[in-house]
Amino acid sequence: MPRIGVVTFPGSLDDRDAQRAIRRADGEPVALWHADHDLQDVEAIVLPGGFSYGDYLRPGAIAAVSPIMTEVVAAANRGLPVLGICNGFQVLVESHLLPGGLIRNAHQQFIRRDQKLIVENADTAWTHRFQPGEEIVIPLKNGDGGYIANDETLKYLEGEGLVAFRYAGVNPNGSLNDIAGLSNERGNVVGLMPHPEHAVEAGFGPDTPEAMRSGIDGLRFFESAVEALVARAA
Question: Does the predicted TM-score (pTM) go above 0.70?
Fold first, then answer.
């Protein structure tokens, strides 16, 4: 059973949800602490949502220089799969594992909604169980989710196919090019603002045409990682 670490920072809110999502995907969640340097031999890492260090300075800025992130960055650069969700995405950007930045939502308000996404890149450690162009629904909740980058970076992201997810139907936070999530070139690091860990079990996810709260599109993020790790170990 693949061991997938979930980092808890001061102010993390969704670390337990991420652990539960890993269990539902037949992985073994391993709790990692922000002040440690020990990754406990995990095979992948999730940086969860929340308000790490109270979002002081900028969301994710202090977490990016925490002791555990020294090890996460080094491991990611060696090819370890890393998923950053919401505040975790902000930490990835602040750690320079993904380019660009995330700023206050364009309408200056916190937003919470079930968000339609288009899968743009299904060739990563966290997305290969999706189909390119597929529409999925994932819960979204953030106040600082507006993705920004300069023209050169946007051209690079689009040209290299590194936009992993794009907002569909409505752009909820003013993100440039409707960008909801990114991948690095190697495909082992993925970050997105919506919360896949909140759509892993029928009865607790987004509404679907079939039934209320039956959406489980988020489960495939974690199944993708577990499947890739099992294949690697075989």
Answer: yes
